[in-house]
C-alpha cells in the first residue's frame, strides 16, 4: 500500500465511521462524509462519534465534513456506507465530484427493495464505471468491536482480482485483515442473507427458546443462504467463508447486531412499527425480507426460515410458533440436505471451503488460497 492514498468514506454511522478508522490506521488519507454538520464537527474536533460509537476515540488523522464535494475531492477510492435504500440517490448526488478513475467500494449489506438489485449492481447501473472498478466488503464485522480494535477479518470481492487486492491492502492493519475473492455475488448475498437468519435468531431468543433451537436455525439457515446464492451464480465455498458463515455466526450471536436486536423485540411481542421506531439505525434485514423472497421464488429456491420471518413481520404468525428449521413440504423423513446431484457437488465444496477457511485463519493467511 502507498501511504497517504486519498480515500473518501460516505456515511458516518457506526460502520462508516469504523471503516474510516480502519483505513486511517492502515495509513490512508481519509475524509469521512457525514450528512449532519454537527456530527462532522464532533468527529473532526472531539475525535468522537457519540451517537454511533460511544466511548471510542477516533484517530487524529481522520477528517470529516458535511460537504460532499470536499469529501470526494481527489479521492482515488470511495467507500460507501449509507442505508441500502438510499444508495441510488446518494450516488446521483456524488457523481459530479468523482474522479475519472475512481474505485467504488460497497460496505453495505442489503438489496434495493424496489429492484432486488445488489449494491454493486446499483453502483454499476447509476455510475459510468466498469465492474472492474467496483468492490464489496463483507465479513464478521460488528462495528463497535472493531472500533475498539478487537481483531477480525473480512473479504474484499471484485470481478477484478487486481482491484480486490488494492482495496484489501488499504483495508488491512494490525487488528483488521482483508482477504480477497472474485465472487461478488456470493460475497454480497452472504452479507444480505445472514441478516435475515439473524432476525429469526432474535425472534426465537425473544420468545425464550434456547441454544438447540438457535443452533438448528443457524445451521439450516446456512443451507438456505448457500442454495439461494448458488442459484444466482455464487460459489458455494464463499458462503462457508468469512462473508457467509463467519458473518452469520457474528450476527446471530451478538447483542450488538441490529438485526438480532430487531428480531428479539419481535419475539417479545412488539409490532414491526414499534421495532422500527425503537431502532436508532437502519436494520437491513427487515428491509430485505420481501425482495429476497421474491428473488428466491423466481429461482425456485425454498427458504422456509426467511418465509416464517416474513409471516412474523406481517403479523400472520405468532413468534412462539416459529420453527422454520422444522418446516418441510412432506411428513416423510428427509435427508438433512434436500439436494439434487448437481447440488451434491456444491455441498462437498462447501465442506472443503469451510475447512480451508479455518486453516487460513489458523496460519495467519499465509496459504496461497484465496478466501
TrEMBL record:
Pathway: Membrane lipid metabolism; glycerophospholipid metabolism
Binding annotation for NADPH: 14-15, 35-36, 52, 109, 143, 258, 284
Enzyme class: oxidoreductase
Originating gene: gpsA
Active-site residue numbers: 194
Species for this entry: Cryobacterium roopkundense
Chain positions recorded as substrate binding sites: 109, 258-259
This protein's record includes keyword NADP: yes
Reactions catalysed, as given in the entry: sn-glycerol 3-phosphate + NADP(+) = dihydroxyacetone phosphate + NADPH + H(+); sn-glycerol 3-phosphate + NAD(+) = dihydroxyacetone phosphate + NADH + H(+)
Coiled coil: none
Listed name of the protein: Glycerol-3-phosphate dehydrogenase [NAD(P)+]
UniProt GO BP: carbohydrate metabolic process; glycerol-3-phosphate biosynthetic process; glycerol-3-phosphate catabolic process; glycerophospholipid metabolic process; phospholipid biosynthetic process
Annotated function: Catalyzes the reduction of the glycolytic intermediate dihydroxyacetone phosphate (DHAP) to sn-glycerol 3-phosphate (G3P), the key precursor for phospholipid synthesis.
Subcellular location: Cytoplasm
Segments forming domain Glycerol-3-phosphate dehydrogenase NAD-dependent N-terminal: 7-162
UniProt xrefs under NCBIfam families: PRK00094.1-2, PRK00094.1-4
Start and end residues of each Glycerol-3-phosphate dehydrogenase NAD-dependent C-terminal domain: 183-322
Renumbered residue ranges of the record's region Disordered: 318-342
GO cellular component term of the entry, any: cytosol
The EC number(s) this enzyme carries: 1.1.1.94
Record key words, sorted: Cytoplasm, Lipid biosynthesis, Lipid metabolism, NAD, NADP, Nucleotide-binding, Oxidoreductase, Phospholipid biosynthesis, Phospholipid metabolism
Family: Belongs to the NAD-dependent glycerol-3-phosphate dehydrogenase family.
Amino-acid positions noted as binding sn-glycerol 3-phosphate in the UniProt annotation, renumbered to this chain: 109, 139, 194, 247, 257-259
Residues involved in NAD(+) binding: 11-16, 143, 258
HAMAP family linked: NAD_Glyc3P_dehydrog
Gene Ontology MF terms: glycerol-3-phosphate dehydrogenase (NAD+) activity; glycerol-3-phosphate dehydrogenase (NADP+) activity; NAD binding
